[in-house]
Amino acid sequence: MSNKVELLAPAGNMEKLKMAVQYGADAVYLAGKQFGLRTASDNFTLDEMREGVAYAHAHGKKAYLTMNILAHNDSIEQVEPFVLEAAETGIDGVIVSDPGIFRIIRKVRPDLPIHISTQTSTTNWETVAFWHELGAKRIVLARELSLREIREIRERVPNVELEMFVHGAMCISYSGRCLLSNYMAGRDANQGDCAHPCRWRYRLVEEKRPGQYYPIEEDSTGTFIFNSKDLCLLPHLPDLIQSGVSSLKIEGRVKSSFYVATVVKAYREALDAWYAGNWQDVQSWLEEVGTVSNRDFTTGFLFGKPGPESHNYATSSYIRRYDFIGLVTGFDKASGRLVVEQRNHFRTGETIEVLPPKGPVVSLTLGEMYDAEGNRIEAAPHPQMKVYLAGVPPFPEYSILRRRA
Ligand code: SF4
Question: Residue 250, CB half-sphere, CA atoms under 13 Å: how many?
């Protein structure tokens, strides 16, 4: 890989993969229908994986396959045939946490680069060296490491790629190694099906008084005692680049394509600015990542153990300042109209913003609109309907139309 740090983005399905690539990711990570630790995202069939990998490669990007479940006996048998088929799609590496899966891949496809998932909770340089000696190409460090610890790991084990999370949701346990959801909802986080009960509001009930809920208060701030804010290390990218890590990862395979595009673009611009010697006030990039759903931001463990400021005690609802209303799919040269696929209702006269894959956000007021048959319409009420916008610039394909929420 180049000397520049890699920006690695989530690809929960084909559209998200393409958006990540278009908005500036250097690589994407995706899962097949098995073994991928995100059952809520669409994930990829083998044919889709082949298509997605080819799309990434055609744009000079990489695609890694996530296989980071903790496998039980009944699923371990299926690993070998799946790996052999997935390897034929051209994937650039496999992300694993289960040593059994690691062993199978080393045995049947020793040429396939292996990345050790953050689910292994690698928190020290001896563990990094351990995995490296076994043949791992890259270690995804635990989110629970400070910048000082990352620097020391880099110094002590210089010849292995290190990857770290820079943006997205945080677990209250060591990244997903948690049975809370399994116990409370029958949905196992370690099999990719977490129901996020750590974010729920808890009350106390005495068993002979059903319906009487007593508040639990850790202190006067309330009861969302496990409700971590989201990680955002964008202001600290210069420190992260200089720490010697190889890859910066954005979490969120179940997040929307709007989310993926917006966050990737902000980090892309910030990284490019730093490499161009043009690091500037980060406020505009922070505002951009704040336009899509988040639980407010924290630097997590980067500067040591997080305190109360890393938790959101007031609410577990997402903050979202903009709605995704349309996706540019082309420009109709004959009529001079921009072709947009509707994602949320919008109408003539509304002021909206356009987020193109590259370049500044543009604000505009919607003028004349037409349907696919050329009929004039005042509104775009149906999901996925094609709308033709007159009097707007020919924004590139994959540009996002958004409106203040
Ligand atoms: S319940 Fe919360 S802490 Fe546990 S795995 Fe799910 S998100 Fe992480």
Answer: 34
Answer yes or no: is the C-beta of 270 below 6 A from any ligand 1 atom.
no
CA-181 nearest atom, ligand 1:
1
**287 close to 46: Cβ distance less than 8 angstroms:** no
- Domains of the chain plus CATH, in order, are 6-174+227-310 (3.20.20.70), 322-404 (2.40.30.10)
- Each residue's pLDDT tens digit, 377-403: 999 888 899 999 999 999 999 999 999
Long-range contacts of 324-327 (CB under 8 A, 24+ apart): 324/256, 324/257, 324/258, 324/400, 324/401, 324/402, 325/352, 325/401, 325/402, 325/403, 326/380, 326/387, 326/400, 326/401, 327/257, 327/398, 327/399, 327/400, 327/401
Which of 64-68, 189-193, 321-325, 367-371 is predicted least confidently? Answer: 189-193
pLDDT band for position 336 (50/70/90)? very high
Answer yes or no: is the C-beta of 99 below 6 A from any ligand 1 atom: no
